[in-house]
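Here we describe the complex-level prediction in full. Unlike the single-chain runs in Section 2.1, the two entities below were treated as one system.
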Amino acid sequence: MKELIERIKTDGRVLGEGVLKVDSFVTHQVDPVLMTQIGERFAECFADSNITKVVTIEASGIAPALYAAQFLGVPMVFARKSKSLTMNEELLTSEVYSFTKQITSTISISRKFLSAEDNVLIIDDFLANGQAAKGLIELCRQAGANVEGIGIVIEKSFQDGRQLLEDMGLKVVSLARIESLSNGEVSFLKEDA
Amino acid sequence: MKELIERIKTDGRVLGEGVLKVDSFVTHQVDPVLMTQIGERFAECFADSNITKVVTIEASGIAPALYAAQFLGVPMVFARKSKSLTMNEELLTSEVYSFTKQITSTISISRKFLSAEDNVLIIDDFLANGQAAKGLIELCRQAGANVEGIGIVIEKSFQDGRQLLEDMGLKVVSLARIESLSNGEVSFLKEDA
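The structure predicted for the assembly as a whole is:
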């Protein structure tokens, strides 16, 4: 996605090998204009897939997932990383290891928001090793929901997340695909959309 | 805001005294249509305030804050409740006690996203005792930014958060004001907008 790639070139920062910081427009400060374009693009890519729900994980997945859901005309559900006192009904849960934070989190979604009738588009801001997406897929499968595909804002193509998801038979759409972050430079692969 | 109040009447659930659950359209599953209307209403209420940035706190503040920012044509920044490994620059931090989760969190925003030039609209999904809003105000003040006002989706008017914020001289706009949750019933005060 041209607008996203241009923005990464302008405002992304490489912090050592493997870390791309996009906190001025995606992960901390959010640009609603770019995020609207991102959501619209995801919706175009899955327009014919009869998506009934967009699923993501807090916190930085929420913005792209919300706009994707808006353009698809369906609700968005975000998995939580910690249990709230008012989230006391039956939960779908799975474990996700975060290499960034070096912790394992239990992520959860209330069972009432996913069912066997759902056809889910999973959205996340980053795809690296695929652990967060895998955790979300696990939640959907516990509910008997079908996962139709995965929409990723920024894919670190030099890590194995995409392979993991494609090996599960899933369609993966990444709007920016990073081939390498070596020597402080961002090199891109041809993006999916 | 009529659409929000009708939705609370239809889909909100009272769990004992003081707890209103709106997880099917605000705090866990999110309705992008209603959230768009909420953001647009906040933007109307602060249209003449020269807002430069919308600030909220993860996770359920993100959706209303994002749409408010979109309609105001400014960026949105969400405070984090835990420190990420890639958030290594200078941070603005404050302490927030959550009665819902019964924990004190350190919330933080990177200093580079708030400055003395900023005129901030703070948005949150709930206002109860005002501790989260107070923490966000504290972050803004550390940066020398002006807080122009507070936009709240659902105010628990039987708690003292609004008084706390008004005593600080701040304009508070709440789209739904809950007078009471006694006997499993939601009663509303006249809303601000």
